């Protein structure tokens, strides 16, 4: 089996290095040291001056009287240089890393672009969709080293003379690293940390594929490591990153030569994709509870999140990355004063500070997933809406069925608060303006009413008191350090939150619009400025209303700089990396801890990803033989716990019968089990529309159904020519057929211009074209557009002024235009439908959930 894996190029686990960790202090030892040493105990000197002397390994005798030293605790590591070379040896991988290049991105080893020049040359309305669109991409320099300058007495990065931009080099690779903890077992607190590397040179749809992600290591559990042990585990990774920054000779397969050649490859750590807790741990920053240094990006005090000044981003005192680095090395070089320096500067040195180009406060973009989805949005719903009773009775004695909570959809607000996941919180934001409007409105408008605070014995009143006490603590700190002694001291009554409906709703709407703008894939410099202004004003207004806010509300206002440097918020989401945890968890293992479990999981991950890569190559064969089909089937069955099994299973039948080749990044993917249309004559209008749609795609030919053949006519047979599908998947969104059991729940969608339609049929018709040997398939989607209300087509809503970003439109209930045929490429997004009864009549409100601009998906 091992010989077969080696012959197929799948035996990547031979590159794994198993390090030994001290069970007590966490000191790292290389395999060579363990093999050659005569001392089985740890030799690390502890802070108190004593030697650790913890046993490092045990000796076991194998078959054939072979003696082996087995580490008591081990760390599996997949060397970055070996993994990167393995990727670059794949056919077409090097060329895929050049797909981002456009006009002005020639390979000429030119100098990097400065941040100032990027702002001067970039159109403020140009979309910052990809990581290649931000200013950070073109400022990366090859061959940098981090050194101490004796003349200035400071540490810094030294670039070669003349400097060469990574973006202007053929073999410059940009990395992003993600480190995240996860539980291995459903029961029990056994937690490990997965470390992943993604290649930013690849397009987004290739970058986050499982087989294109490098699983560097799994840090063993079960408990959280100390700062020293954590740095020790990252030391091999840091050594490889420093080596790649200087340049490493690797074999690179280049299609133009048809073979692999040795080239000098440079690597650069571009960013760390981390949640905020992991960001603090890897950057050495103090915890969120710190008063003076709670924010990684600026010097705002923690207590200022209780007043509007804590969210006015234009007045922030941002941290200088070079001064921040000097503070770290100052902590390192003064062991006797570390406690004082850590409290004074709010940071300490970590092993990652050795990597050239890495600065903790600028190389870690704001993680929009945790800061907004499970941060500010969850806080808004749980702590500001449900907790204080804003969905409760609007006056004493109000009937239960007339209270806002009775009109809230879904009806169980407490269930939403406790069980929703990050993506569900993210999708709640575009719905909130409509949900809150319908819950709080009185007729056509929301009244300027005061929600009662409730009885002292209720959970609502206790929540209000608890929030007021927390707010009072912050304001007392501000009064102590910055207050005027002549001003009155803040009291608990001064910190009670405002319960007026109309101002509260307006501010929630402000937050939702700002959130939608920031998370748009087509965000630009100008729209990012607008989005941050709305989010900042929303947080400031909540502070004025005496609402207790979490630190995420302040941290989220720093995302504008992250967007300018790294592109849209999607590029810093942790979600693609957290999905890879499932690959580790699904690996079969014996449950042994202390590194044995982690080594098994890393080996299993590598085997699965290599099988996935081989499966993709097999399914891309133009004319597969019976042996190829059997191999595909066997490989698919072996990936029962693989991460892409569901995708492969839905596409396998088409590949096996030769109706399509596997392309994992295709924008449009049809359902796996179509039905044959017995006779198109039974639906003559459909037959006619299919022909009209195909004619728009053909040049020089005319497709027709019944009747006389026109010039250059190609008939579409009424029998055995067309397949009917229940659904298709385009750009990750599912679009189904109305009335079909597998498509009913996804029967609506946007077409270009954000026009809602209902999908009636999805056909694929095959024609024998004169210039082709095999029949060619055309996909046609039959849809009906929504119709406006016949009497009051445009009723007034609170979000009308922001509808360019809210994407909320009123339509008549279940009324559609005539049937028309479109291409699947015209389906651009999905939406939710909210039925609402107004004095003018009944309406369907369509709420854009995933409005997509296809030109920005590449």
Q: Could you explain the architecture of this structure?
A:
There is one protein chain. The protein is an alpha+beta fold and 858 residues long. Among the domains are: 368-572, no CATH class; 668-856, no CATH class. 33% of the residues lie in helices and 19% in strands. The chain contains 27 helices and 27 strands. Strands 14, 17, 20, 21, 22, 24 and 25 form a seven-stranded antiparallel sheet that branches. A five-stranded mixed sheet has the order 10-9-8-12-11, with helices on both faces. Strands 2-1-5 form a three-stranded antiparallel sheet. Helix 23 (596-619) runs antiparallel to helix 24 (626-638). The longest helix is centred in the middle third of the chain and has 24 residues, at 459-482. Mean pLDDT is 86; it is low at 641-666 and 852-858.
Radius of gyration: 30 Å
Portion in helices = 25-40%
Q: Main beta sheet, described? A: 7 strands, antiparallel
Q: Which structural class matches the secondary elements? A: alpha+beta
Strand content: 15-25%
Number of alpha- plus pi-helical segments: 27
Give the overall silhouette.
globular
Uncertain segments of ≥5 residues (pLDDT<50)?
641-666, 852-858
How far is the N terminus from the C terminus? 39 Å
Output mean pLDDT: 86
What's the count of strands? 27
